Amino acid sequence: MEQVIVVGGGPVGLWLAAELRLGGVSVTVLEARAARGPHSRALTVHPRTIENLAFRGAAEPFLAEGLRIPRGHFAGLRELMDFAVLDTPFPFTLALPQTRTEELLEAHARAAGVRILRGHRVTGLSQDADAEDGSGSGSVTVRVEGPDGPYVLEAAYVVGCDGTRSAVRAAAGIDFPGTDATVRAWLGDVVVDDPPAEPALSASGPRGALLAVRLPGGVYRFVGTTPEDVGPGPAGAPTLAELRAKVTRITGRDFGMRDPVWLSRFDNATRQAARYRSGRVLLAGDAAHMHFPAGGVGLNVGIQDATNLGWKLAAVVRGMAPAALLDSYHGERHPVGAELLESTRAQTALMTAFSAEGQALRAFLGGRIASVPAFSKDLAERLSGLAVAYPPAPGEAVHPLTGRRAPDLELDLDRTDADGSSGPSSLFHLLRDGRHVLLDLASTGPDTTPGTGTGTGTGSAAAYGAVVPPGTAVYRARLTSGRSGWSGLRAVLVRPDGHVAWAADAHAGPVTTG
Q: Which ranges of 11-133 does DSSP label H, i.e. alpha helix?
């Protein structure tokens, strides 16, 4: 029997599979496509996603190949988001075609030992009675149509990363409520003879809204919508002549576009899975949420779904955590998905505000409100994924940092359980093996013997009255650069997904729980 089957070999499924292997679980990816498609719908890699890649040592190829864009946009308003103010080593988005993102993530997954089967389409699944609550010895039966005909697999858990038309979601009986399309938009990847001066161009007015981004190979992507695209409209791909006419109408020029690589349409149908978990079946990425691709956030939220789920599912499969831990995946990520839908709906409304009143609203937001630094920074943190914070669950340690993203802290290690080294390091480097990381930051305090957590706490953790998970890496360290909210700590436990599990102040007594 398989330990975990991941259905869908896109970016989310590949990243999740690699995370599960890092956690010591065998995993098979079933991908319906026999070969990767030539076109890339997703294009943008956001700062928090780059951080996820970085704390697994996988970011360098993305940084080397992606086009760095220092500003984001909200409904095409680039004035609203300057990523330079973000507290991250990666204050930019990367423009990188999804096909290349998938290639890099597949190489990462295969290097981790993931088995990937292409041309294997899931046609259905069922859970036995013992699997319904996700505990006990139950299993999931997966029906597959492969290159040599139909067959059946058994797995302890199945995760659907198979997109908005998810076969896994449908077979598991998980509702997918939401709203139907009211707006259509168009996309064209074309060669241009007279390119825009900047790598990323935005234009908006009563005649339409347009974004243009430079891609590798001398190709530009033009994405936009016009007043005629609001309401019912054609479903097929636009012609090059239609694309040229729409772009010219919005910007006054056609940029010498020719030789289309890909032309397509999409819409703003918006839905979210009612549950991210049903017994031993879970959902991540587009299988859990679909929306208008405003700001290129969808792929990024999906990758972050996988980072949240991977370590939890691995711990449950290996018997190191109760199955109830998987409920926290829905509890933490479903609200993030709901906020994603709220944001993209708001952006859709603002992008299609073609009336005089709508244009006045866009001018107001892009002018006066953008000049308020606190507003701009808050929006950038939200859209980049850096602002995500998970509320403490009952019984978890209560501290202002609990649930928040941990930045890439600069550290001076006293001793380490990993390789016996000492000296300069960083939190992201310590997270590379996918374990919880306990930092003993007290310059004076209980002695810490570098080692591995036993489940009841070791070193400073036990002395502080806290409980750490089995396999926790314990380090004694000193912060070498100041950060707001992080000074004065004596200990902090960081989860494998880079969020704070608990923290203790230097002046506090034993860690309390709520």
A: 11-22, 47-54, 60-65, 98-112
Report the pLDDT value the prediction gives residue 460, as an integer from 0 to 100.
Answer: 40
Spatial distance between the Cα atoms of 431 and 382, rounded to a whole number of angstroms: 23
Rounded to 5°, angle at Cα 453 from 462 and 442: 50
Least confident range of 170-179, 311-320, 374-383: 374-383
Q: Going edge to edge, which strands form the sheet with 437-440?
A: 423-426, 410-416, 473-479, 437-440, 489-494, 500-505
Residues near 494 by Cβ (< 8 Å), separated by ≥ 6? 406, 427, 431, 436, 437, 438, 439, 500, 501
* 3-class DSSP assignment, residue 307: helix
Q: How far is CA 362 from CA 70, 224, 286, 355, in A?
A: 21, 16, 29, 11
Contact call for residues 2 and 117 (beta carbons, < 8 A): no
> pLDDT digits over 25-51, tens only?
999 999 999 999 888 888 899 999 999
Nearest alpha-carbon partner for 162 in 11, 266, 264, 292: 11
pLDDT class for 454, splitting at 50, 70, 90? Answer: very low
Distance of CA 386 to the CA centre of its chain: 11
> Which has the minimum average pLDDT: 180-189, 256-265, 376-385?
376-385
Q: What phi and psi values does residue 124 have, to the nearest 5 degrees?
A: 175, 170
CB 494 within 8 A of CB 439: yes
**pLDDT above 90: residue 409:** yes
Three-state SS for 246? helix
Higher local confidence (pLDDT), 131 or 505: 505
Other Cβ atoms within 10 Å of 383 Cβ, number = 27
- Residue identified by tokens 């107001």 is 364
